[in-house]
Amino acid sequence: MKISESELIHEQEFMEDAGGVSSFEDFWMFLAFAMVLIVFILMGFVSYLNKLQIDTIKSHERTASEPTGTNAEQIPENIVDIYVRKDGDGVYYTVNRDMETKYRSTDQIAEAVNSRSEKLVSDTVVFNIYAPGDYYYEDVMRAAFTVDSQDVLSGREIEKVLNMIYEEDMEE
Protein backbone atom coordinates (compact mmCIF):
# COMPACT_ATOMS: atom_id res chain seq x y z
CA MET A 1 0.00 0.00 0.00
CA LYS A 2 1.38 3.33 -0.98
CA ILE A 3 0.70 6.63 0.82
CA SER A 4 -0.24 9.42 -1.47
CA GLU A 5 1.52 12.71 -1.36
CA SER A 6 -1.66 14.60 -0.48
CA GLU A 7 -2.24 12.39 2.60
CA LEU A 8 1.34 12.94 3.69
CA ILE A 9 0.98 16.72 3.37
CA HIS A 10 -2.33 16.57 5.28
CA GLU A 11 -0.64 14.65 8.16
CA GLN A 12 2.27 17.11 8.29
CA GLU A 13 -0.13 20.07 8.49
CA PHE A 14 -2.05 18.33 11.29
CA MET A 15 1.20 17.79 13.28
CA GLU A 16 2.23 21.42 12.84
CA ASP A 17 -1.18 22.66 14.02
CA ALA A 18 -0.95 20.66 17.28
CA GLY A 19 1.94 22.88 18.42
CA GLY A 20 3.41 20.54 21.06
CA VAL A 21 2.09 18.89 24.16
CA SER A 22 -1.36 19.55 25.56
CA SER A 23 -2.07 21.11 28.93
CA PHE A 24 -3.16 17.67 30.17
CA GLU A 25 0.28 16.29 29.36
CA ASP A 26 1.90 19.36 30.98
CA PHE A 27 -0.04 18.73 34.17
CA TRP A 28 1.08 15.11 34.45
CA MET A 29 4.69 15.97 33.64
CA PHE A 30 4.66 18.67 36.34
CA LEU A 31 3.03 16.31 38.83
CA ALA A 32 5.64 13.60 38.16
CA PHE A 33 8.46 16.13 38.59
CA ALA A 34 6.93 17.44 41.83
CA MET A 35 6.61 13.91 43.25
CA VAL A 36 10.25 13.12 42.46
CA LEU A 37 11.30 16.40 44.09
CA ILE A 38 9.26 15.65 47.22
CA VAL A 39 10.82 12.19 47.48
CA PHE A 40 14.34 13.65 47.34
CA ILE A 41 13.49 16.28 49.96
CA LEU A 42 12.06 13.65 52.31
CA MET A 43 15.09 11.43 51.82
CA GLY A 44 17.34 14.34 52.80
CA PHE A 45 15.23 15.10 55.89
CA VAL A 46 15.35 11.47 57.03
CA SER A 47 19.14 11.36 56.62
CA TYR A 48 19.36 14.62 58.62
CA LEU A 49 17.35 13.08 61.47
CA ASN A 50 19.53 9.97 61.43
CA LYS A 51 22.64 12.08 62.09
CA LEU A 52 21.66 12.58 65.72
CA GLN A 53 22.51 9.50 67.73
CA ILE A 54 20.89 9.18 71.10
CA ASP A 55 22.66 6.61 73.20
CA THR A 56 19.91 5.85 75.68
CA ILE A 57 16.40 6.86 76.61
CA LYS A 58 15.79 6.43 80.32
CA SER A 59 12.99 6.96 82.78
CA HIS A 60 13.70 8.96 85.95
CA GLU A 61 11.35 9.19 88.92
CA ARG A 62 11.71 12.49 90.72
CA THR A 63 10.68 12.61 94.36
CA ALA A 64 10.03 15.54 96.64
CA SER A 65 13.14 14.72 98.71
CA GLU A 66 15.47 14.99 95.70
CA PRO A 67 17.94 17.84 96.19
CA THR A 68 17.67 20.85 93.90
CA GLY A 69 19.36 24.20 93.64
CA THR A 70 22.75 25.04 95.14
CA ASN A 71 22.50 22.46 97.96
CA ALA A 72 22.59 19.59 95.49
CA GLU A 73 25.34 17.03 95.49
CA GLN A 74 28.42 17.77 93.43
CA ILE A 75 28.08 16.76 89.75
CA PRO A 76 31.12 15.16 88.09
CA GLU A 77 32.86 17.40 85.58
CA ASN A 78 32.19 15.15 82.61
CA ILE A 79 28.38 15.09 83.08
CA VAL A 80 26.19 17.99 81.95
CA ASP A 81 22.52 17.89 82.93
CA ILE A 82 20.09 20.00 80.89
CA TYR A 83 16.55 20.39 82.20
CA VAL A 84 13.63 21.44 80.00
CA ARG A 85 11.10 23.46 82.01
CA LYS A 86 8.07 25.63 81.36
CA ASP A 87 6.71 28.79 82.94
CA GLY A 88 4.32 31.57 81.98
CA ASP A 89 6.74 32.96 79.38
CA GLY A 90 7.21 29.62 77.63
CA VAL A 91 9.88 26.95 77.60
CA TYR A 92 13.26 27.53 79.23
CA TYR A 93 16.31 25.41 79.93
CA THR A 94 18.50 25.07 83.00
CA VAL A 95 21.99 23.60 83.09
CA ASN A 96 23.06 21.29 85.92
CA ARG A 97 21.49 22.04 89.31
CA ASP A 98 21.36 25.84 88.84
CA MET A 99 17.59 26.24 88.65
CA GLU A 100 17.64 30.03 89.00
CA THR A 101 19.37 30.78 85.67
CA LYS A 102 16.84 30.35 82.87
CA TYR A 103 18.15 29.98 79.34
CA ARG A 104 15.49 30.89 76.78
CA SER A 105 17.48 30.09 73.63
CA THR A 106 19.73 27.25 72.59
CA ASP A 107 22.59 29.70 71.98
CA GLN A 108 22.59 30.46 75.69
CA ILE A 109 22.80 26.72 76.44
CA ALA A 110 25.84 26.44 74.19
CA GLU A 111 27.52 29.37 75.98
CA ALA A 112 26.79 27.87 79.42
CA VAL A 113 28.26 24.49 78.45
CA ASN A 114 31.28 26.06 76.75
CA SER A 115 32.01 28.11 79.88
CA ARG A 116 32.52 24.83 81.77
CA SER A 117 34.82 23.39 79.10
CA GLU A 118 38.03 24.14 81.00
CA LYS A 119 36.80 22.02 83.93
CA LEU A 120 36.45 18.90 81.76
CA VAL A 121 39.02 16.26 82.65
CA SER A 122 38.06 13.42 80.33
CA ASP A 123 37.62 13.00 76.58
CA THR A 124 34.02 11.86 76.96
CA VAL A 125 31.24 14.18 78.05
CA VAL A 126 27.81 12.81 78.97
CA PHE A 127 24.86 15.09 78.25
CA ASN A 128 21.63 14.19 80.06
CA ILE A 129 18.50 15.99 78.86
CA TYR A 130 15.71 15.75 81.42
CA ALA A 131 12.14 16.53 80.37
CA PRO A 132 8.66 15.50 81.46
CA GLY A 133 6.54 13.81 78.84
CA ASP A 134 4.02 16.65 78.52
CA TYR A 135 6.48 18.95 76.67
CA TYR A 136 6.64 19.28 72.95
CA TYR A 137 9.08 17.03 71.16
CA GLU A 138 10.44 20.10 69.35
CA ASP A 139 11.56 21.77 72.59
CA VAL A 140 13.40 18.68 73.80
CA MET A 141 15.04 17.97 70.43
CA ARG A 142 16.13 21.61 70.11
CA ALA A 143 18.33 21.08 73.17
CA ALA A 144 19.56 17.74 71.81
CA PHE A 145 20.56 19.21 68.43
CA THR A 146 22.30 22.11 70.16
CA VAL A 147 24.37 19.77 72.29
CA ASP A 148 25.27 17.66 69.27
CA SER A 149 26.20 20.68 67.12
CA GLN A 150 29.66 22.10 66.49
CA ASP A 151 28.82 25.13 68.67
CA VAL A 152 29.26 23.09 71.85
CA LEU A 153 32.83 22.17 72.86
CA SER A 154 34.17 22.70 69.36
CA GLY A 155 37.75 23.50 70.36
CA ARG A 156 38.57 20.02 71.67
CA GLU A 157 38.39 16.43 70.50
CA ILE A 158 35.59 15.24 72.76
CA GLU A 159 33.21 12.34 72.38
CA LYS A 160 29.66 13.36 73.21
CA VAL A 161 27.25 10.87 74.75
CA LEU A 162 23.63 12.01 74.64
CA ASN A 163 20.97 10.59 76.97
CA MET A 164 17.30 11.56 76.82
CA ILE A 165 15.70 11.09 80.25
CA TYR A 166 11.95 11.10 80.76
CA GLU A 167 11.01 12.46 84.18
CA GLU A 168 8.06 11.04 86.05
CA ASP A 169 6.73 13.08 88.94
CA MET A 170 5.88 11.01 91.99
CA GLU A 171 2.55 12.00 93.51
CA GLU A 172 2.42 11.96 97.27
Task: Pick out its properties.
alpha/beta, single chain, 172 residues, 2 domains
Output mean pLDDT: 75
Q: What's the number of domains?
A: 2
Radius of gyration: 29 Å
Order of strands, widest sheet: 1-5-4-2-3
Percent of sequence in beta strands: 15-25%
Order of helices and strands: HHEEEHEHE
- Global geometry: elongated
Uncertain parts: 63-74
Q: Care to count the β-strands?
A: 5
State the secondary-structure class: alpha/beta
Number of helices: 4
Helical content band: 25-40%
Largest sheet: 5 strands, mixed
| Gap from first CA to last CA | 98 Å
What report would you give on this structure?
The termini are far apart. Helices cover 38% and strands 24% of the residues. Strand 4 (124-132), helix 4 (137-148) and strand 5 (159-169) form a beta-alpha-beta unit. By secondary structure, the chain is α/β, with parallel strands linked by helices. The protein has two domains: 5-51; 56-169, no CATH class. The model is unreliable at 63-74 (pLDDT under 50). The relative contact order is 0.16.
Give a nutshell description of this structure:
Helix content is 38%, strand content 24%. The chain has four helices and five strands, in the order H-H-E-E-E-H-E-H-E.
